[in-house]
Design brief:
The structure holds two protein chains of two kinds. By secondary structure, chain A is mainly β. Chain A is 0% helix and 51% strand. Chain B is mostly beta strands. Chain B is globular. Classes of the chains: A mainly beta, B mainly beta.
Chain lengths: 114, 114
């Protein structure tokens, strides 16, 4: 079975400061990991995904994430945040089957303080 | 890339009334389709997924049902709504059955049961 734990429900950070949003997963099959962002009252938009290869994955809007198999983590980072990064961020793991279903964490609300 | 359309965007329904949320997909054929629910302050819960016309899998027992009458159409229904059915419903789709394919989300439908 697959599951995702996002350890921080809320993360406040000052504008232009770095941020790390934590994600840990458990999976009994090959791991495919994703980060999505949700702006207020909108659907989810893919930030980045890890399927295989390099453990450092770069995504849109300056975000990146590092897959760490030994620590079963996939933390999301950005070196300098903007006000526009204020949103809900979801980590997800694929079940690795043909149904390709995603299992999400409970989300982390990032608030960028001016 | 594919585009997910879902409607209505917002609705308020009395307890015991029926529900129908519709989702259509553009830009791909034979997609995997999904319905997720996002309750206030919680993560995303997978409700149903479909790998083809007439093929529906339910992830959790509930007051809801889903149908896929056409390749790119996915409908979420209820015969009698409960207060606990309130939430933000998201339709999603993915091309093909390869694990790790990006899942695209619609803009969501806010349901308030009163």
């Amino acid at each position: 079975a697959q599951s995702v734990t996002q350890l921080d429900s809320q993360v406040p950070v000052f504008e232009e400061a770095p941020v790390e949003l934590r994600c840990n997963y458990s999976s009994s099959v090959s791991v495919y990991l994703f980060w999505y962002v949700q702006y207020p009252n909108q659907g989810l938009q893919l930030l980045l995904k890890y399927l295989s290869g390099s453990t450092l994955v770069k995504g849109i809007n300056g975000f990146e994430a590092e897959f760490n198999k030994s620590q079963t983590s996939f933390h999301l980072r950005k070196p300098s945040v903007h006000i526009s990064d204020t949103a809900e961020y979801f980590c997800a793991v694929s079940d690795g089957t043909g149904a390709n279903t995603l299992f999400f964490g409970t989300g982390t609300r990032l608030t960028v303080i001016p | 890339s594919q585009t997910i359309h879902q409607w209505p965007a917002t609705l308020v329904q009395p307890v015991g009334s029926p529900l129908s949320l519709e989702c259509t997909v553009e830009g791909t054929s034979n997609p995997n389709l999904y319905w997720y629910r996002q309750a206030a302050g919680r993560g995303l819960q997978l409700l149903f997924y479909s790998v083809g016309i007439g093929q529906i899998s339910s992830e959790v027992p509930q007051n809801l049902s889903a149908s896929r009458p056409q390749d790119r159409q996915f409908i979420l229904s209820s015969k009698k709504l409960l207060l606990s059915d309130s939430g933000f419903y998201l339709c999603a789709g993915a091309t093909g059955i390869t694990s790790g394919n990006t899942i695209y989300f619609g803009e969501g439908s806010w349901l308030t049961v009163v």
